[in-house]
Design brief:
Distance between the termini: 72 Å
Strand content: 15-25%
Number of helices: 7
Number of strands: 12
């Protein structure tokens, strides 16, 4: 008798993702269901998703965390794997996911006691998959039981919040945005603004020392201690942008603090 496992839904949010979505959908075909929640694509994203048998839902943009949570709640199964359109599940990660869900299905107990699992994400940057520094392992908590976990409401850097301990799976999730350096920098500028606003809303404050020292600390941590230098020029450019982003986030916080009425 063939082994059975907990049924799995894959949830993906999209917007004009046709150029990236096919590889993502292909890598997710092992799931029992694929749900694509779209926020107004004008390309062939819908027809591509439906060609792979995905359930396609239109939903106006709610913000990163709320949009992903909407997709999770629209899924038919409690175990959900959340992917971005520019991500691909490797065969090794697929094996780890299916093995874990099989154990949970056939165990009399709750197996390992985890309701969510993280795994390493491998980011492609300037034509190279980074394997060190800030780019790897980019731990991503994406597989979870929605009865015990959910996406945060954060406007940027959203995360899965679980009500118990989480496990770790082997196998990489590949992230291949295929975007130009120019568009990457434009996105980072938007993200630092959102991150600054979130930090201030949480009661955090910036200072001249944070603006000056945060990029230095980041460079030492990721380029030297975590050996980002081993990824060559792409690794150097990646951490240089990360250091700049850190400085700019605190500078934007300082700007907003100084502009606030006293």
């Amino acid at each position: 008798m063939p082994a059975t496992r907990q049924p799995l839904s894959v949830a993906i949010i999209t917007l004009n993702a046709a150029s990236q979505l096919e590889a993502c959908l292909q890598s997710a075909r092992f799931a029992d269901e694929i749900v694509v929640v779209d926020s107004g694509s004008t390309d062939v994203t819908q027809s591509l998703a439906e060609r792979f048998g995905a359930r396609f839902i239109q939903q106006d943009w709610l913000g990163f965390g709320p949009q992903k949570q909407f997709a999770v709640e629209a899924a038919s199964h409690d175990w959900v794997l959340c992917l971005d359109a520019d991500e691909r599940v490797t065969p090794a990660l697929q094996t780890a996911i299916e093995s874990t869900l099989e154990i949970r299905q056939n165990s009399a107990s709750t197996a390992d006691g985890f309701h969510a699992y993280r795994f390493p994400r491998c980011n492609r940057f300037l034509g190279r998959y980074l394997k060190h520094g800030e780019g790897y392992p980019d731990w991503s908590l994406r597989l979870f039981d929605r009865r015990h976990a959910r996406w945060s409401d954060d406007a940027v850097h959203e995360k899965v919040v679980c009500d118990g301990p989480t496990g770790t799976l082997t196998g990489d999730l590949l992230h291949d945005s295929a975007e130009s350096l120019s568009s990457y920098l434009t996105k980072q500028n938007r993200y630092t603004s959102l991150a600054a606003d979130m930090a201030l809303a949480a009661g955090k404050r910036s200072s001249l020392s944070r603006v000056a020292l945060s990029p230095l600390v980041r460079f030492i941590k990721f380029y030297i201690v975590r050996q980002g230098f081993r990824d060559g020029l792409p690794g150097f450019v990646h951490i240089a942008i990360g250091c700049f982003n850190s400085m700019i986030k605190y500078a934007k916080m300082l700007e907003r603090q100084n502009a606030a009425p006293r």
